[in-house]
Design goal:
About 60% of the residues lie in helices and about 5% in strands. Helix 6 runs antiparallel to helix 10.
């Protein structure tokens, strides 16, 4: 009984999020990426909570995909930042492939950090993420932001969650405006292994 109560409390704490924190994140997102849609706000939030979208078992395949991205993008295609926190709690960071292109980190360093981040911890359940998202979207609804396709995007997200999935792509508006090319790295790995390499060369 006591153990069950403690687990319930732990679950509530893991999904709880304050309206003030949601508003702060959404306002920062829209200031930095004014072409964002709800899909892009959602994506940053689930990356922050769930981490990378898939466990990584095939390093060569992941490396080949990164190689292709590096070979088909120029610095002019990329945002000026080298890294940015995900979502509300900053549990994960997006590290731009710009950091590789400018030789701040090696391809292997970012690849290793990404793979270990994807595989390092037990992934939270989609159910717990869905509960957290419904807290977040409740606050976003109250903010009455003039986002394009808001109701359509909201319904699409609900349809993904309703079948036990959670991952989606950036909106086409966001991709066309900002050319997102990055890898997700868990915060402690980022801070211990990647951040200083970038900061000392900036």
């Amino acid at each position: 009984m006591k153990k069950g109560l403690l687990l319930s409390i732990a679950l509530i704490m893991s999904v709880a999020v304050s309206a003030q924190d949601v508003r702060g994140f959404v306002n920062r997102q829209m200031q930095t990426y004014p072409k964002s849609r709800l899909l892009d706000i959602y994506k940053s939030c689930f990356q922050d909570y769930m981490g990378a979208e898939h466990l990584v078992s095939d390093r060569q395949r992941v490396k080949a995909y990164l190689d292709e991205e590096l070979n088909t993008t120029s610095l002019d295609d990329l945002m000026l930042w080298y890294y940015e926190p995900c979502g509300i709690d900053s549990s994960y960071y997006r590290v731009s492939i710009r950091a590789i292109k400018e030789s701040f980190v090696s391809e292997d360093q970012l690849l290793d950090a990404f793979i270990r981040s994807a595989n390092s911890e037990k992934r939270p359940s989609v159910e717990s993420w869905s509960k957290r998202w419904h807290m977040i979207i409740g606050t976003i609804d109250q903010m009455k932001i003039d986002l394009p396709n808001y109701q359509e995007d909201k319904q699409f997200i609900d349809s993904v969650l309703s079948v036990g999935k959670y991952a989606i792509s950036h909106s086409s508006d966001y991709r066309e405006a900002y050319y997102p090319h990055y890898r997700i790295v868990e915060r402690s790995i980022f801070e211990n292994e990647i951040k200083n390499l970038i900061d000392q060369k900036k």
